[in-house]
Amino acid sequence: MATPYTPKSILITGAAGFIASHVAIRIAKKYPDYKIVVLDKLDYCSNLKNLLPVSSSPNFKFVKGDIASADLVNFILVTENIDTIMHFAAQTHVDNSFGNSFEFTKNNIYGTHVLLEACRNTGQIKRFIHVSTDEVYGETDEDAVVGNHEASQLLPTNPYAATKAGAEMLVMAYGRSYGLPVITTRGNNVYGPNQFPEKLIPKFILLAMKGEPLPIHGDGSNVRSYLYCEDVAEAFEVILHRGEVGHVYNIGTKKERTVMDVAKDICKIFNLEAEKAIKFVDNRPFNDQRYFLDDEKLKGLGWSERTYWEEGLKKTVEWYVANSDYWGDVSGALLPHPKAGMMPGHEGPQDTNGMLAQFITQNQAKTLAAPPASEHGAKTVENGAQVYTNGTVH
């Protein structure tokens, strides 16, 4: 096992989103000596409210900006003395990738490349944790009893998975060519509070709350594995401190359930008759039947799944019932086949100014000053990049 690693200043990309917000909150609260800097452009599936639990923490800073801005990324790495990157920022919804694939290439491949090049330029990064997905492995045989292990071939079947696999190749190349200390993770599906309702579980919960049909692609036999968000946040905490440079870690569970099983479990919680509540709709252009991971390597670092499905689903339902208006109007996301253009607020949450007012304690805002020219290429910062730290805009 690698020597335990202790970061000092961590850049977490995409942490106003679902999984990364849980990771950022966990680390910021548990390790007050670590500086946590979040970079997020506040896309439609991000929400500043996800970070409210740590918004006033002295070790936390939020920067609104795009990972595709090389000058901004270089500037942050240098001025914040970043030694660790946890790269979550990505376009992740498979349905959207079929109709908006160029955005996935731009965000997932080009954005990752910008980060890697900034790391090479500055030469100060001691850990680069790249967050990928189980979908890069492609479809697992229905009768397979052993899951994909970290050395399995990558065979993505949809544009989203292909861009994540492409990003992985860049990460691996920078590790080998430039000695960048990279670690890659590939995870099963994650669910829990705060997730934007384009994904299956929150979508079904909100539809069940409205008494509307639960749309199932195809015949509902597709198999998925689900991990509760807090268990996944703990996995990233373990990988951050104990993961070995150059290695890949699956974050998974061997407990599988079909999409039909998920729908029936949600119907049961809401006392709905599944036969009446479930509606079958056209399948995706290609819908992988199964993703199955071998999770033994991560268990070897001391991590294990803690939250049983019944408990995690109950917590998730309770959260959405108590926070039904959290995302505002999400009617476009609740359609059987949502498209990117139907999503609210491509520039961020609908009430961005209101969100910022909640997020900071002083109702002031000014643009982050452009950095001076430097040998690292950080000459200008994109217009509109803003920093929010300890309750104040800088």
From TrEMBL:
Gene3D superfamilies with a match to the protein in the record: NAD(P)-binding Rossmann-like Domain (3.40.50.720), UDP-galactose 4-epimerase, domain 1 (3.90.25.10)
NAD is among the record's keywords: yes
Chain segments annotated as transmembrane: none
UniProt cross-references to SUPFAM superfamilies, sorted A to Z: NAD(P)-binding Rossmann-fold domains
Residue stretches making up the NAD(P)-binding domain: 11-316
Keywords (A to Z) from UniProt: Lyase, NAD
Biological processes, Gene Ontology terms: nucleotide-sugar metabolic process
Pfam families the record matches: GDP_Man_Dehyd
Cofactor: NAD(+)
Entry keyword Hydrolase: no
InterPro entries: dTDP_Gluc_deHydtase (IPR005888), NAD(P)-bd_dom (IPR016040), NAD(P)-bd_dom_sf (IPR036291)
Single Gene Ontology MF annotation: lyase activity
Protein name: NAD(P)-binding domain-containing protein
Organism field: Urochloa decumbens
